[in-house]
Amino acid sequence: MPVTIHDVAQRAQVSASTVSRALSASHLVRGTTRERVLAAARELGYQPNPAARSLITGRTGNIGIVVPDLNNPFYTGVLRGVQSRARQGGYAVFFADGEEDPVAEEALVRAMSRQVDGVVVCAPFASDAQLRSLAGLTSLTLLNRRLRDIPAALMDSAGGMRQIVDHLAALGHRRCAYLNGPNNAWSNRERRRGLRAAASRARMAVVEFGPFEPKFEGGVQAADLALADGVTAIIAYNDLMALGVLSRLADRGVAVPQEMSVVGFDNLLYAAVCAPPLTTVAMPMEAGGRAAVDLLLSGIDGTGDGAGPHRELPTNLIVRATTAAARSRSARPHVDNRRPAAGHAASGPTAAAVHRPSGGRSAALPE
Amino acid sequence: MPVTIHDVAQRAQVSASTVSRALSASHLVRGTTRERVLAAARELGYQPNPAARSLITGRTGNIGIVVPDLNNPFYTGVLRGVQSRARQGGYAVFFADGEEDPVAEEALVRAMSRQVDGVVVCAPFASDAQLRSLAGLTSLTLLNRRLRDIPAALMDSAGGMRQIVDHLAALGHRRCAYLNGPNNAWSNRERRRGLRAAASRARMAVVEFGPFEPKFEGGVQAADLALADGVTAIIAYNDLMALGVLSRLADRGVAVPQEMSVVGFDNLLYAAVCAPPLTTVAMPMEAGGRAAVDLLLSGIDGTGDGAGPHRELPTNLIVRATTAAARSRSARPHVDNRRPAAGHAASGPTAAAVHRPSGGRSAALPE
DNA sequence: GACTCTGCCACAAACGTTTGCAAAGTGCCG
DNA sequence: CGGCACTTTGCAAACGTTTGTGGCAGAGTC
After folding, report:
1. Range with the lowest mean pLDDT among A116-120, A221-225, A351-355, B278-282?
2. Chains A, B: CB pairs < 8 Å
3. HTH lacI-type domain: which residues (chains A, B) (predicted)?
């Protein structure tokens, strides 16, 4: 029923091979016959059968993407970037939601591998070995995950943390809390690493809590812990947690940013529209998706811009209304059950000492 | 390089056709040889080449989905449902973001059509004619769009509106505002229709504003207009607009829900976590995605549960903290620039009279 | 005028799978 | 023991495309 290359050939009075060449390697056919073929193809509405083509060429014209959680706006941003760049390069995209299960993720990539020319994987929980084994199946590009020999698009989380620390330090904050996301998430380790380095350089004390579920509820839970410690600023693993923190602080009657500064990470839509608007680090989600596809395609057909195997994208601190100058210690009248704010200023423990969370301070969730 | 059916055949000492049959129509081969073939396939890690298969069978094992905007959490919810049900049925899914452009949407479906067995399309802006023409290319299922002869999964927006009206009426509200989403969006027309019917039955007056951009900013813009009219409750086209309304009302010093009730539509994540938590109608996004795939598959291979061509999913009003009993007229001290609240109670105009927005009240955006 | 060279085109093989058909084997009945 | 039905298997064609090879014509060269 659908029109094949032979129908076009017949109409244009040429052989099928000429049609094929006229549609691709055009310099091998005479100009006039090429016109004739193109006209015939247009009139018949010819669309090549991708299955037949990929059978002979070994290429599919598709790429895949697997994400851990479609509910997370971060990944839908990535998805957007991936899709837009892929379409621009003439590729269609398969997608799959691993539902935060590394074995499901692996199975999905495995299933896709025969139908795609490559896949970009966002797999914060998968093991290095798993990823390497998948790289043997089809060409891979990672997102926010650094692994030797496998190309990756990375977002400069550490740089974002540095900007946060500089910002808070300039506002006079000397002691901050960091609310960890999942310990096995690559990006949490990366953000923590960047924070520790920046804090140590800025001589800022950092108290760590968690790990927590990287969601609103996790932030609610974490807020009380941070409040009890006497910090003047809270840095959350991501925006969802930061929103939870804001909600809990409001319930407890702690004014943000006057009494407590709060910073998130990701710059989701809702960071801009919540009250008060959240200071956060913008992650280049769409750009990350685009870059990942660029890397993938350059590995496949040299179409990409052929930069190195790893590309790091800049992040930017967006200062909104949840950060302000650190409050003086005495000005906290109505937080009832707080601990005495012992030695929280310059006289407190050094950053290095506080980095390792003690049993009491850390471990809000079983690890 | 990859292992083919012939490799398996050789190892199992049978012909390729026997391997093929052993892997599918198992009753045609003897039990013992089937075992042998299966073992050989397992040992070699054989994965059939989908291109070759689809070339001969004419089926691809893929479905597609096109959505108008990946940034909208509503559609990512649908996406999740689609993907999960598709995987369960052994299908992989292509996706494409039409970026709210009907012609792009059409082009995407057209491009996909050769690689998929069917596609579910969420195309609130496409014309009926466009959709019908696409239905000729491949089998289609619509989401939230009713069109004769084309199967569709529908969410009962009208029912949701009825629940809103009943809820508000029970709280004593007699005059409400509706903030229209885009006029050419099917779901806005549907919600408005449901609202008008329910309001007329409940003898509630409805003043309409808009259309507005169905985003936060649209809500901000709309809030002032509704406030000026003297309504006691605002029903927004969707949650994003409702959040904008909340933000603007807070800025204007209008207490929610004491002085104004606000209702959204969709039940996005953020409706639950904003302050105060938003009363809204839960749309069954994932269930809708699942249902759409069910319908699609039953059209393709009889795999679905074979219900009728249209399936309507129930919606539920989630009452949270933005709705309360209507304020009495005198208790509005600090809204400065409001109009005199003339005749807004039972003595006011009938519902039918107010339904057609007059020039002065409507048209906040050029149409 | 015979040779080579070049431009253009058709023929046919190949990709990996499914499937109709025939052949071979087996068991049963008359 | 021949014929028949039935089961099990292999052969080969087909799906629609790309691409290597070869042929044919015309032009150029000696």
Report:
1. A351-355
2. 114
3. 3-57
